[in-house]
Design brief:
This protein is of the alpha+beta class. The chain has eight helices and seven strands, in the order ααααββαββαβββαα. The structure holds adenosine-5'-triphosphate. Belongs to the adenylate cyclase family. DacA/CdaA subfamily.
Length: about 270
């Protein structure tokens, strides 16, 4: 049941690893292999402590909801962060011009809830400005200091610019460089965001979601997709979304801990073109 609820592959592997450890411990007990049993017991204990650390905030939220008698909230569908037509129009107009002028751009759009910005390799520079075509176009001009990296958009605000995102490790077409891999990387780790990419080389527009790139898109197709995503009845998460998110959170946090120990320089953007 738990494995069905946890949709994320990495989390699934983590849970499977723990189950294997438990099984091995039971088998070693049955075979009377006391030393091995002792080692496995310690390993399971370590894993349980690690999971408690990884889960910290989720446990707190669970206990809070339990205390308030609102546990059912865990099963409720999260509604998309509302975006007015005006915000979508400003975004699409900016993307259209950037594409026509072959100005590279990368935008992370929060779709619901609160995106965990700890996943950003570098949080960039806080702006907190109203989304407008002019602001977005200005940020991505290659002469500005903030053009390198991504902008992070929450609701109708450009929260930050110059954000460095984790790269996807999946192999991609040779045409796709780090900008596109960053869009795939953030959307494969975080499910409540999508990414718009404009290629500097070809001007093509892409939309990344769940680690996949939809490309090339026309600006009208992009508008259609954004409207569908941000409409109140838009694609929400399905069955037991909060549990799914919980599973992905474990995967993400586990991964963040691992990445802290093995952060590679490949996650930084290449030098200014
Ligand atoms: N990890 C990252 N996070 C955010 N932005 C990044 C990251 N890596 C690269 N970028 C942005 O992408 C730019 C480099 O793009 P690159 O040419 O490697 O990618 P690309 O996918 O081929 O895109 P394009 O088609 O625009 O050339 C950098 O200058 C930087 O602005």
């Amino acid at each position: 049941m738990l494995l069905l609820i946890i949709g994320e592959r990495r989390t699934f592997w983590m849970v499977r690893g723990l189950i294997y450890l438990m099984l091995a411990s039971v088998i070693s007990d049955a075979l009377g292999l006391r030393l091995l049993g002792l080692v496995l017991e310690k390993l399971i204990l370590g894993a349980a402590v690690a999971i408690a650390v990884i889960f910290q905030s989720e446990f707190r939220r669970f206990l809070e909801l339990l205390g308030k008698g609102q546990v059912w909230e865990l099963f409720q569908k999260s509604s998309p962060t509302p975006k007015t037509d005006n915000v979508i129009d400003e975004l699409v107009d900016a993307v259209k011009d950037l594409s026509q002028n072959r100005t590279g751009a990368l935008m992370v759009l929060e779709t619901s809830g609160n995106l965990d910005t700890k996943v950003f390799v570098n949080p960039g520079v806080t702006l907190n400005g109203q989304v407008s075509k002019e602001l977005i176009q200005t940020i991505f001009q290659t002469k500005t200091l903030l053009h390198d990296g991504a902008v992070f958009i929450r609701g109708d605000r450009v929260v930050a610019a110059g954000v460095i995102l984790p790269l996807s490790e999946r192999s991609t077409s040779r045409q796709l460089g780090t900008r596109h891999r960053a869009a795939m990387g953030i959307t494969e780790r975080i499910d409540n965001c999508i990414c718009i990419v404009v290629s500097e080389e070809t001007g093509s527009i892409s939309l990344a979601s769940g680690g996949n790139l939809d490309r090339p898109l026309t600006s009208s197709k992009l508008k259609e997709l954004l409207e569908a995503k941000f409409s109140p009845s838009g694609e929400g998460e399905v069955v037991a979304p909060s549990w799914g998110r919980l599973g992905r959170t474990i995967g993400l946090k586990g991964r963040l801990i691992l990445e802290k120990f093995s952060r590679s320089p490949s996650a930084t953007p290449k030098d200014r073109k």
